[in-house]
Specification:
By secondary structure, this protein is α+β, with helices and mostly antiparallel strands. The chain has three domains: about 5-75 and about 120-145, Ribosomal Protein S5, domain 2, CATH 3.30.230; about 75-115, no CATH class; about 150-285, no CATH class. The chain has helices at about 45-55, 80-95, 100-110, 125-170, 175-195, 200-215, 215-235, 240-260, 265-285; strands at about 5-15, 20-25, 30-35, 60-70, 75-80, 115. It has a four-stranded mixed beta sheet. Strands 5-6 form a two-stranded antiparallel ribbon. Helix 1 runs parallel beside helix 4 (about 125-170), helix 2 (about 80-95) crosses helix 3 (about 100-110) and helix 7 runs antiparallel to helix 8. The termini are close together.
Length: about 290
């Protein structure tokens, strides 16, 4: 079963004095690209979160944000009393008249570092709960990826079926194609051989080589096998977008070769339609995990 690289997940944790919300989203990317926004007092745990995201989500441009809302009466912000007193004394010295203390305080509180943030030590039990909510958010994202993957799978299988159907149309033009080529060669040879001396053995070798170059039997067999392998890979337990990308490249090679060898209008029309279906597959595969 394939998964999409696009997804979103959210989970919330309610603690006695805090509300913690975790949001995680992912977009398609060739490799894993992780961006984390986390409160400063959790910074020392960022590597643990990054390692968890990398091992669990594997690929994609991933953004995780942790929002903390204080719901209790305690605050980490404290007035830097010593510095505020220095500010007020300095401001008073510059004034020609005595300024009211309230006005000085109002000015001083707007100056740099008037408020200080006391570093909060991470409680082990609290962090265990935070990691738990991170895991829930990631689980929600994975569920989203699976749902999107099901939609991708249906679209891709539809295009693979189209390529198979078009491929099955090719044989009915084969006899006409061969006869047309034979007639064309015969006409050209008749014109040339009447006026030119030639080595019959060499001519026969060249003709065999030329006919082999126009044969598309191998391309048809390989194309059929690649389509079957593509479906087999999609139906496997592990989503593997890179592998599907490689198989789609092989599909393209066989379709292109078939088109260049066809020498038949109707077969070339079928090839164009196969290419169109393959381009749609490639676009979808870019978003497969």
């Amino acid at each position: 079963m394939i998964q999409s690289m696009t997804g979103f997940g959210r989970a919330t944790l309610i603690l006695p004095k805090k509300k913690i919300t975790v949001e995680v989203k992912s977009l398609n990317s060739k490799q894993v690209d992780i961006n984390i926004r986390i409160p400063s007092f959790y910074k020392e745990k960022e590597l643990q979160v990054r390692s968890f995201l990398s091992s669990t989500l594997r690929r994609g441009k991933i953004e995780l944000s942790i929002f903390v809302e204080n719901t209790g009466t305690d605050s980490q912000h404290r007035i830097n009393k010593d510095l505020v007193n220095v500010y007020m004394n300095s401001l008073q010295e510059f004034g020609n008249e005595k300024v009211a203390a309230g006005e000085l305080l109002s000015i001083a509180m707007r100056l740099p570092d008037a408020m200080k943030v006391e570093r909060e030590e991470i409680d082990a039990e609290e962090w265990k709960a935070v990691i738990g909510v991170v895991e829930k958010a990631v689980e929600a994202l994975i569920d989203y990826r699976k749902a999107e993957g099901l939609s991708l799978e249906n679209d891709i299988k539809k295009q693979i079926t189209a390529i198979n159907s078009l491929h099955n149309e090719v044989p009915k033009y084969e006899e006409e194609r061969v006869n047309t080529i034979k007639e064309r060669i015969s006409t050209k040879l008749t014109d040339v051989l009447q006026s030119v001396d030639f080595d019959r053995d060499r001519l026969e070798q060249e003709m065999i080589y030329f006919i082999e170059k126009l044969d598309i039997s191998e391309e048809k067999v390989r194309l059929k096998n690649h389509c079957a392998y593509f479906i087999e890979t999609m139906d496997s337990k592990e989503s593997n977008g890179k592998k599907l990308g490689f198989i789609s490249q092989e599909l393209g090679r066989e379709i292109n070769t078939m088109g260049s060898k066809a020498n038949h209008t109707e077969i070339q029309k079928l090839v164009v339609q196969m290419k169109d279906a393959l381009e749609k597959i490639k676009e979808q595969v870019l978003n497969v995990l």
